[in-house]
Amino acid sequence: MHTNHPIRVLQIVGRMDRGGIENFVMNIYRNIDREKVQFDFLCHYGKEAAFNDEIRSMGGKIYEMPAIRSENKVFYWKAFEYISALNAFFQEHREFKIIHGQMTNTASIYMPIAKKYDVTTRIAHSHNSHGKIGMLGVVTNILKKNMFKHATDYFACSEAAAKYAFPEHIVNAGKVKIIPNAIDIQRFRFDEKKRQEMRSKLGVDDKLVIGCVGRFRTEKNQGFLLGVLKDALKIAPSSVLLFVGDGPLEDAVKQKAEEMGFANKCIFMGMQPNVPEIMQAIDVLAMPSMFEGLPLTGIEAQANGLSIVASTGIPREMNVLGLVDFLDLSMSTEKWAEVLVKKALEPKKDTYDDIKKAGYDIHTTAEWLQDFYLKHG
Questions:
Q1: Close Cβ partners of 351 (under 8 Å, ≥ 6 residues apart)
Q2: Which CATH number fits domain 185-357: 3.40.50.2300, 3.40.50.170, 3.40.50.300, 3.40.50.2000?
Q3: The whole model's pTM is what?
Q4: What's residue 131's pLDDT?
């Protein structure tokens, strides 16, 4: 049926930078049979992004919509321009019969428009278990209320993300498909030789390395770790914080580190393409987020045999291998430091078979999604 040319699935995203959702989509894209299924991308920030070149090299097309929000602001006055652009896009691109809404903030706007132009399969995919902070959160919470009415299929990365995005009657009826945030587990497999090489390269051979991987945004709460570091240094004077990621609050955290006298105790690596190699060098992963869906980083870390200390704002479902300790953010920084140092001293082990058995191998998930797209295309 689909032998002549691939069906094209429109992935609706924010911007294809190295975030959790974007990494998940790219993991799927790299592992589907692109002679059968091809991805195109409807993006919303109008800027070149980290994955754009790779997308084009794999045959994907990138379309841009007017941005109606930045990292922390909503441009209300652009709403009509956005709606007009969506109408024009779907009127022109009748080739799409499937849209996969990875970005659900504006799904209640783009879903009915897609439906109007005969897009027959409209997937709403929840990746969050909590709304945004401030006025942006108020707006997105209002927008998400009607999203389910125009979607034909409901996906979520976790039970918590399902309950956040969709009404109780849909969740209780078993209509939400839980899609694990699967990864290429071989890329993250623990390797002692790679670990020593990376630690040497980063200059942390003799350090206790507390890692934190993620965008510098309010909900990720990286600034909290500077207080934790202060207490960790009392227990383990060789402690350092290694941050991977960029974002609007990166400079503020850097400045706070300098003010606290920790400039030489913090490593800010920015956005990096080689997270699997960097994870080899880390002793323990800190995840002090105020809230998350089911963070890809947590699965990647467990695939690397890394112990994790995470906030209770992260769903317990993330603890797939028993390597995660959950602490409330109301607990003292001393307690966080104590647990992080204790976990950092535990030896890392090869967890390849365990993480595969737990259902987080990308090949299994990609195969399921490919079959879904082919059935509905």
A1: 190, 302, 303, 304, 305, 321, 323
A2: 3.40.50.2000
A3: 0.84
A4: 59
